[in-house]
Amino acid sequence: MAEPLPDPPSDPLTGIAELDLDRGARRGYPEAVYCAGKTPEQVRRIATALAGRPDVTTLFTRAGAEHAAAVLDVLPDAFHDESAGLLAWPPTRPEPRGGLVVVLAAGTSDLPAAREAHLTAGYLGRRSELVVDVGVAGLHRVLARLDLLRRARVIVVAAGMDGALPSVVAGLVSAPVVGLPTSVGYGAAFGGLAPLLTMLNACAPGVSVVNIDNGYGAGHLAAQIAAPQEDGA
After folding, report:
1. What pLDDT does 34 receive?
2. For the chain, what is the mean pLDDT?
3. How many CB atoms lie within 10 A of CB 18?
4. Of the CATH numbers 3.40.50.1970, 3.40.50.300, 3.40.50.2000, 3.40.710.10, which one belongs to the domain with range 100-225?
5. Regarding beta strands 177-181 and 154-159, do their DSSP bridges make them parallel or antiparallel, or are they unpaired?
6. Which residues fall within 8 angstroms of residue 83, CB to CB, at 6 or more apart?
7. What is the residue extent of each domain of the chain?
8. What is the bridge-based pairing of β-strands 127-132 and 100-105?
9. What does pTM read for this prediction?
10. How far apart are CA 72 and CA 81, in angstroms?
11. Among 20, 21, 46, 200, which is 20 to 30 Å from 150 by CA?
12. Alpha carbon 61 to chain centroid, angstroms
């Protein structure tokens, strides 16, 4: 009587996800894990599957406290920034190449989205600097940073309320500006819709806009813009 066939090896992601581990080779940038809407157990199983691939830099975005605990239980040395809701594994950033990404937060309340953009750009291999509290209520603050802004290959501007800062910055520099509207502001800000529309209607050319609170998208776009040129910059 023939021996029964062995059970196929178990896949920890059956019924949950199919990781795109070749995305980095295909597109130049690895896949990220969007945690919102996933259970902590689902995130844990994804982290378990990634534990054997330290060659793939993985960002866990929009991670709440329970998501973070699940990831850190499997990958205890993962980098974790609670304010940005972001984890990175392996925790060491790649050696930076390409141009400088500067991320501006109009106010302290815009920091979660701004930090997500800043960290994303850094873990995607770019030099990134974060500047905080330079909103249009005190224009001297952003004007004092002109030397830094004019050294940037690309500038991400996170702003809520009236969302005017990207237009101001784009009128001062030659680099492209990525507008990052945040859901900060009183009722008429409509949870970020008002700054989103302001940025989309920017009169200064060279402003692109990502979705509300999408720090990951802003940081990713900035990393692509600041990628090394063919001359090896």
Report:
1. 95
2. 91
3. 8
4. 3.40.50.1970
5. parallel
6. 111, 112, 115
7. 23-89, 100-225
8. parallel
9. 0.89
10. 12
11. 200
12. 8
